[in-house]
Write a structure and sequence with these properties.
By secondary structure, the protein is mainly alpha-helical. The chain has three domains: 87 residues, Fumarase C, Chain B, domain 1 (Orthogonal Bundle); 244 residues, Up-down Bundle (Fumarase C, Chain A, domain 2); 63 residues, Fumarase/aspartase (C-terminal domain) (Ribonucleotide Reductase Protein R1, domain 1). The chain is built from 18 helices and six strands. Strands 1-2 form a two-stranded antiparallel sheet. Strands 3-4 form a two-stranded parallel sheet. Strands 5-6 form a two-stranded antiparallel ribbon. Helix 3 runs antiparallel to helix 8, helix 6 runs antiparallel to helix 7 and helix 10 runs parallel beside helix 12. The structure holds arginine.
Length: 462
C-alpha cells in the first residue's frame, strides 16, 4: 500500500506489533459501507466512470459477503500471517484480486486517516443503537418485578445500616432511573458521533472537489466535520461512548452488590434462580451469585477501557498518530462486555425470588425513630429537639434491651411529656410509608405513579 519509497520489507516482529487486522476486521461492514459511498461520490464528481463505480461496488459487495460468511482469508505471506496490515488494506487487497486494476482508483483522495475515523464512527453509532434494546429490556424486567411486589416493605439502608422502611419496588426502581439516564446519555452522545470525517484526507482535506454533504447523507451522518486536522484525530466520541458504557457498568455493579448481599443467608431477601447461580467445586452446599459478581467485576473492565483511551489521547500531537490505533480494542471490548452482561442481569431480575418473610422479619421498629421525631414535631416541638428526644428513646430502649415499640408509655413520658398513649401508632411500617406520598417518595401511591411513568417510557421505546 505504501511500498514506493521503501527498499526493504517490514520486520516480522514489527509487522505483528503494527498489525491491527487481528482485531479491526470487525470494522469490515462499516469500512465497506464507507467505500461504497465513496465510490458513488467519485463517480458523481467524475473522477471515475459509472462503469468503474459499478465494478468497485460489485467487488466491495463480494468482499463483504466473504466476511459475512467468515471465508475471508487474510493474506498469509509472512510467517505471522499478518501481511494485511489492517481492515482497510485487507479490503482493498481483496478488492484488487476480485476486480483487478480498477480497485486502485477507490482510494483516490482518501486516506486511511479519514477512513478509519469514519469506520469507527459508523461502528459506534451501530453499537449505540444495538444497546438500546438490551437496556430497555433490563428496565422492563425491573418494572415487572416491581409490579409483582407492589406492597412489600423492606428495610432501606444508608451506610448499609437500617435506615427507614421503603417499598421493595421503590428500591428496585432506583435502578430503572439510573438506566434511563444511561440510555439518554448514549443517545445524546450519538449526536456527536454522527459527524462525518470522510473528506478530511490525511490531514489537509480532499483536493478533488468531492461532495462531503452527499457522503454524509449517504452514510447517515447528521453533518460533516468542520476541521480536517481535528477530524482525523478526534476520538472524543469513543471516549464519550466508553464513559457512558462505564457508567452503565457502575450502575450494574451497584445492583450486583445489593443483590450479592441480599441473597446471602444473613439477609435472605432474594433467592437467585439456579439458572443464574453456580456451585462450588469443593463445598457441596454452595450456591454462588456469580452473575451479579460478574456485573460488579465487569465494571472494572469497562472503566479500564475508558482509562486506556483517555491515556492514549493525553498529550497526543495534533492530527493523526498511530497511537490512535489503540482506540479499537477498548471500544470492541466494551461493546462485547455490555452486550453479554445486560441480558444476564435482566435474566437475574426476572427469575429471582423475593422472600417476603425475610423482608418482613428484617423490619426493626428502630427504623421508625424518624417517625417518632415527626410525632413530636406535630406536637409543636422543634425538629432538632424532637430528633434528640427520639434519639434518647432509642438509647433507653437499647439499655433496657427492648424494641423501640416496647418502651412503656411511662418511659416515653419521662423523655418528653408530649408523648401520649397514641405514640404506639407510630410503630406501623405501612403508615410510615403512607406518610411519604411526596412525589418521588416511597409512599405506595407515589411508587405506583413512578412505575406508571416508567411504563410510559419503556412503552415509548418499544
Ligand atoms: N489501522 C489504522 C488505525 O487504526 C488505520 C489508519 C492508519 N493510518 C496511517 N496513516 N497509518 O488507526
Amino acid at each position: 500500500m505504501w511500498g514506493g519509497r521503501f527498499s526493504k520489507s517490514i520486520n516480522d516482529q514489527f509487522a505483528y506489533l503494527n498489525n491491527s487486522f487481528r482485531f479491526d476486521w470487525r470494522l469490515y461492514a462499516a469500512d465497506i459501507r464507507g467505500s461504497v459511498a465513496y465510490a458513488k461520490e467519485l463517480a458523481r464528481s467524475e473522477i471515475i466512470t459509472d462503469a468503474e463505480r459499478d465494478a468497485l461496488i460489485d467487488g466491495l459487495q463480494r468482499v463483504k459477503q466473504e466476511f459475512d460468511a467468515r471465508t475471508f482469508e487474510s493474506n498469509p505471506s509472512t510467517p505471522l500471517r499478518v501481511s494485511d496490515e489492517d481492515i482497510h488494506t485487507a479490503v482493498e487487497r481483496r478488492l484488487g484480486e476480485l476486480v483487478g486494476a480498477v480497485a486502485g482508483k477507490l482510494h483516490t483522495g482518501r486516506s486511511r486517516n479519514d477512513q478509519v475515523a469514519t469506520d469507527a464512527r459508523l461502528f459506534t453509532l451501530d453499537a449505540i443503537s444495538n444497546l438500546q434494546s438490551p437496556i430497555s429490556d433490563l428496565q422492563r424486567a425491573l418494572v415487572e418485578k416491581s409490579e409483582q411486589h407492589l406492597d412489600l416493605i423492606m428495610p432501606g439502608y444508608t451506610h448499609v445500616q437500617r435506615a427507614q422502611p421503603v417499598l421493595f419496588a421503590h428500591w428496585l426502581m432506583a435502578y430503572f432511573w439510573m438506566l434511563q439516564r444511561d440510555a439518554e446519555r448514549l443517545r445524546d452522545c450519538a449526536a456527536r458521533v454522527a459527524v462525518l470525517p470522510l473528506g478530511a484526507g490525511a490531514i489537509a482535506g480532499n483536493a478533488l472537489g468531492i461532495d462531503r454533504e452527499f457522503l454524509a447523507r449517504e452514510l447517515g451522518f447528521a453533518r460533516v466535520s468542520e476541521n480536517s486536522i481535528d477530524a482525523v484525530s478526534d476520538r472524543d466520541f469513543i471516549a464519550e461512548f466508553l464513559f457512558a458504557a462505564a457508567l452503565i457498568g457502575i450502575h450494574l455493579s451497584r445492583l450486583g452488590e445489593d443483590l450479592v448481599y441480599y441473597s446471602s443467608a444473613e439477609f435472605g431477601f432474594i433467592t437467585m434462580d439456579d439458572a443464574y447461580a453456580t456451585g462450588s467445586s469443593l463445598m457441596p452446599q454452595k450456591k454462588n451469585p456469580d452473575a451479579m459478581e460478574l456485573a460488579r467485576g465487569k465494571a472494572g473492565r469497562l472503566i479500564g477501557n475508558l482509562m486506556t483511551l483517555l491515556t492514549v489521547l493525553k498529550g497526543l500531537p495534533s492530527s493523526y498518530d498511530k497511537d490512535l490505533q489503540e482506540d479499537k480494542e477498548p471500544l470492541f471490548d466494551t461493546v462485547d462486555t455490555l452486550s453479554a452482561l445486560l441480558p444476564v442481569v435482566a435474566g437475574v431480575i426476572r427469575t429471582m425470588r423475593v422472600n417476603a418473610n425475610a423482608l418482613r422479619a428484617a423490619l426493626d421498629p428502630a427504623m421508625l425513630a424518624t417517625d417518632l421525631a415527626d410525632y413530636l414535631v406535630r406536637r409543636g416541638i422543634p425538629f432538632r429537639d424532637a430528633h434528640r428526644l427520639a434519639g434518647q428513646a432509642v438509647k433507653r430502649a437499647e439499655t433496657l434491651g427492648v424494641a423501640l415499640s416496647e418502651l412503656s408509655l411511662a418511659e416515653y413520658k419521662t423523655i418528653a411529656p408530649e408523648f401520649g398513649a397514641d405514640v404506639q401508632r407510630v410503630f406501623d411500617f405501612a403508615q410510615s410509608l403512607a406518610a411519604r406520598e411526596v412525589s418521588g417518595g416511597t409512599g405506595p401511591h407515589a411508587v405506583r405513579a413512578q412505575i406508571a411513568q416508567a411504563r410510559t417510557i419503556i412503552e415509548r421505546v418499544a
